[in-house]
Amino acid sequence: MQLAIAKGETSLGIEFGSTRIKAVLINKHFETIASGSYEWENRLENGYWTYSLEDVIAGMQAAYREMKQEVERKFGITLRTIGSIGFSAMMHGYLAFDKTGEMLVPFRTWRNTTTGPAANELTNRFQFNIPERWSIAHLYQAILNEEEHVPRIDYITTLSGYIHWLLTGNKAIGIGDASGMFPIDEETKYYNEAKLQQFDELLAVKKYPWKLSDILPTVYISGKQAGLLTEKGANILDPSQQLQPGIPICPPEGDAGTGMVATNSVRKRTGNISVGTSVFAMIVLEKELSKVYPEIDIVTTPNGSPVAMVHANNCSSDINAWLGLFREFSEAMGYEIDNAQLFNVMLNKALEADRDGGGLLSYGYFSGENITGLDQGRPLFVRSPESPFNLANFMRTHLFTAFGALKMGMDILTKQENVAIDSILAHGGLFKTPVVGQKMVAAAMNAPVSVMATASDGGAWGMAILASYMMNKNKNESLEDFLDNRVFKDVVGDKIDPDPEDVVGFEVFIERYRKGLEIERAAVEHLLYVKNEGGVTC
Prior knowledge:
Helix content: 25-40%
Number of helices: 19
Radius of gyration: 23 Å
Mean pLDDT: 93
Distance between the termini: 53 Å
Number of strands: 22
């Protein structure tokens, strides 16, 4: 292994998730040989969810440094070269720069729901769903708001595109991430030309010194080389200056694309669910949907196949907050407990609950939720006096609500569009606790759900696979074949079929969830009123 590392027979994926930056180094057999991570959180500043670029760089360096130290500790070798590298990150959002490379406004992440008017107008104009979190919605909302920075724009990109540009000097983006910026043409594997022209026509009266195609990154499909690590980039990634420049870099991708790769879900009729701060399901389509749905995005796989994406802004944040409260209780009683034990004990209580959660109701909305039509979120837990209020029902209710908005979007695909799904694979931190998360997702989807051994490494491992594909694919070998025949050839997932009683219980819960949305809306309106009156800060 030392020789392979020294010769650079490795691939590195670094993914910038919503709560963690992770670096994963794999060997030529696609096995993880070292990893590193860095915990971080977004902040609400001046009405926008954001991360500072200083944190972006510091977090990347910390994750890389921890991975590098593990290589030194395990193999006794200093990491000086790598066969290929790829960067991925949360999709969507808005990073805008002028001609000098100066950032014009703080990074606006996917989590912001401030772009409703822009998203609605563009959806109507394009006859193509433009969600609020898409980059083009952020840009057009800035135009509608007449923000001063707009005429100065020279380049807009996503977080993965920014990191790639910083380390290679190339304004590139993978097609999957690009499909969350602007609609993609399935035939050309590039931005939809007709819609680009429609957007430019919309802005004609503004007389900006740019056209949209001028300020978007260049689109690359998987397997292509999208640049080389520059000397400046190598020193940013590894401030010890031991990493050598010239390493090939694959197209930067979004976390949706790396999730598809990590779960071998890039063939048609396959799907995957990614669970974290947000939750999204990706189903690779056989045919176009019959109409435009605001709850469903059309994006692409890393090799350009159309995908129906159901994305909910809120998933695990409220569960994490409640478990933090239980941790405080445990510590106040004099008992120390580690994360793994806390999650294992608490999540498993959900298996003892009433099938529908006992009539309890929860909305873990830390932010707005486009699927349910809420511009702002307020975490809310509700129960009636007769509801069986116990720990098991409490935990099942919070797990069910984590997938509540997702379920509403998926019902459109499965019940209205009759989209066929042969398999669903799940990944994310929730599945580190065996069985529980799978059972809840299987109940929500009413389909078998599998988790592979690679699930805990998630998108960073998937990004490393994409980097390896660029370097190691055979001539004309598709990404689907590379994954099936080489990466996942001997990988067996743990599959759980939906329990019919759990499915019925989730259907009962989701009807309660739909009806109770008026309570959540009232809570948002009331707290906004109190805030505006100067009573409290929310």
